Amino acid sequence: QAQVAESGGGLVQPGGSLRLSCTTSGFTLGRKGIGWFRQAPGKEREGVSCNTNDDGTTRYANSVQGRLTISRDNAKKTVYLQMVNLKPEDTAMYYCATCVIIADTLWFDAGSWGQGTQVTVSS
């Protein structure tokens, strides 16, 4: 069974940076799309990014494009989300999951969601 575990969240000031990590197991990461979505209390879930494979297509939500960057190390079975110039509206629980891109829309597999890691952007 595919499993993921997120880490790296924390409290950061606006304009700051943070790097999230997602360790994976139970599947060959290099043959799966992987990405991130987030959810804040009282708000809708929002797809952040999806990368189809190591040499594949990457898509970002308009709200994060240019500030958040997804990368992967298939040998380490780990996915990263480098976050720079963070804004208060980035505050949310961030989840890693396998994903696909259909018509430029990010779709996530609920069965691979981890526990999430909290990102709080506040002064």
For the report, how would you describe the main beta sheet?
Answer: 7 strands, mixed
- Unreliable spans: none
| Binned strand content | over 45%
The helix/strand series, from N terminus to C terminus, equals EEEEEEEEEEE
Ends distance:
40 Å
Radius of gyration (CA) equals 13 Å
Q: Give the overall pLDDT as a whole number.
A: 94
Compute the number of strand runs. 11
Helix/strand structural class:
mainly beta
Q: Helical percent range?
A: under 10%
Shape: globular
Number of continuous helical runs? 0
Offer a few descriptive terms.
mainly beta, 0% helix, single chain, four-stranded antiparallel β-sheet, 51% strand, 11 strands
Describe how the helices and strands are arranged:
Elements: E1 3-7, E2 10-12, E3 18-25, E4 34-39, E5 46-51, E6 58-60, E7 68-73, E8 78-83, E9 92-102, E10 105-108, E11 117-121
Parallel strand pairs: 2-11
Antiparallel strand pairs: 1-3, 3-8, 4-5, 4-9, 5-6, 7-8, 9-10, 9-11
Description:
By secondary structure, the protein is mainly β. The chain is 0% helix and 51% strand. The chain contains no helices and eleven strands. It has strands spanning 3-7, 10-12, 18-25, 34-39, 46-51, 58-60, 68-73, 78-83, 92-102, 105-108, 117-121. Strands 2, 4, 5, 6, 9, 10 and 11 form a seven-stranded mixed β-sheet that branches. Strand 5 and strand 6 form a beta hairpin. It is globular. The model has no long low-confidence stretch (mean pLDDT 94).
